[in-house]
């Protein structure tokens, strides 16, 4: 069975190499602040499964380096979480990344990323792929390759219970904290329009900008989630909006989710656009989706 999968991988990677001439096409640069020095961790993986298999140039470069460099979250429980005492990473995205490294027969190095830094690091070639609650969108597909989704989450909103905010209606004319480089502000605005809370005649999904939107709700953008959590405690924002998986760690005793979850977020493995490594990763992810490997990781990490 394993032999068959790798034979398939080989032919797919080879055919993509022929189609693309093995070139890496950098089509876009992300916005946002410069990445800070990443925290890294090296983990030895098990025996090589790569003997006598040919790979495209991008994939071969990772094998030659001997290390797969992966951008992951470090504070999303069940997805990408780093134990502050041991430095160990765990979660669904960590398990998938480790299995990709094992398939290549290389070690793995994790770099903690934010919504804003993950694409900068990928574009700069500092990491080979991103497994960091990265939602697949049509717009993003113009700039990066994404695997088939390995998990679907939803967007929600966290508030201080004492504010009495409970619904999308209660968010009318409020200020909401979101992360730069995230889908959250657009998703919340759309959900409020669909719920009839705001008119939305001037909403245009393509040109929407969280920084300038003021119709019925406005946004403050932050570099990372701890900063939004602090702003929520300080009353600098009335609510904190992002994927429910990310909000979980910030849901303290004094806080609650509003009664709404919306905008499905399909998480995919992101790789450089046009890279043969994208094809390699896609083959693995689609195989692990159909053979139950990913469902096993989802269950192991307490996710639904
Ligand atoms: N998943 C959302 C996105 O990709 C939320 C941001 C995040 O992943 O940190 O935009």
Give the helices and strands, then pairings.
Layout: H1 2-20, E1 40-43, H2 57-65, E2 67-72, E3 75-76, E4 80-82, E5 89-90, H3 92-104, E6 107-112, H4 117-124, E7 129-131, H5 138-141, E8 144-146, E9 151-160, E10 174-179, H6 184-194, E11 217-222, H7 225-234, E12 239-243, H8 244-247, E13 255-257, E14 262-267, E15 270-272, H9 276-290, H10 293-300
Parallel strand pairs: 2-6, 2-7, 10-11, 10-12
Antiparallel strand pairs: 1-6, 3-4, 4-5, 7-15, 8-15, 9-12, 9-13, 9-14
In terms of DSSP E residues, the strand content is: 15-25%
What small ligands are held by the chains? glutamic acid
| Quantity of strands, as a count | 15
The CATH homologous superfamily of the largest domain is called Periplasmic binding protein-like II
CATH architecture assignment of the largest domain? 3-Layer(aba) Sandwich
- Give the biggest sheet: 6 strands, mixed
Radius of gyration, rounded? 20 Å
Q: At the third CATH level, what is the topology name of the largest domain?
A: D-Maltodextrin-Binding Protein, domain 2
């Amino acid at each position: 069975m394993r032999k068959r999968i790798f034979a398939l991988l080989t032919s797919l990677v080879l055919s993509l190499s022929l189609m693309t001439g093995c070139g890496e096409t950098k089509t876009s640069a992300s916005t946002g602040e410069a990445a800070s020095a990443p925290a890294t961790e090296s983990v030895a993986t098990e025996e090589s499964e790569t003997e006598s298999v040919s790979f495209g140039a991008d994939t071969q470069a990772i094998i030659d380096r001997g290390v797969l460099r992966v951008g992951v979250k470090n504070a999303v429980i069940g997805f990408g979480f780093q134990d502050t005492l041991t430095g160990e990473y765990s979660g669904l995205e960590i398990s998938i990344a480790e299995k990709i490294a094992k398939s290549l027969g290389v070690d793995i190095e994790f770099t903690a990323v934010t919504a804003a830094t993950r694409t900068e690091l990928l574009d700069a070639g500092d990491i080979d792929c991103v497994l960091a609650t990265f939602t697949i969108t049509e717009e993003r597909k113009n700039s990066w390759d994404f695997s088939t989704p390995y998990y679907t989450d939803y967007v929600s909103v966290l508030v201080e219970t004492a504010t009495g905010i409970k619904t999308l209606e209660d968010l009318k004319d409020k200020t909401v904290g979101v992360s730069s480089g995230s889908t959250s502000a657009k998703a919340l605005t759309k959900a409020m329009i669909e719920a009839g809370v705001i008119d939305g005649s001037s909403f245009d999904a393509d040109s929407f900008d969280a920084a300038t939107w003021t119709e019925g709700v406005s946004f403050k953008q932050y570099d990372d989630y701890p900063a939004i959590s602090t702003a929520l405690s300080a009353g600098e924002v009335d609510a904190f909006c992002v994927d429910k998986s990310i909000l979980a760690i910030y849901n303290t005793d004094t806080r609650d989710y509003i009664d709404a979850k919306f905008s499905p977020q399909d998480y995919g493995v992101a790789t450089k656009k046009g890279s043969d490594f994208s094809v390699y990763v896609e083959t693995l992810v689609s195989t692990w989706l159909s053979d139950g490997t990913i469902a096993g990781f989802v269950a192991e990490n307490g996710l639904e």
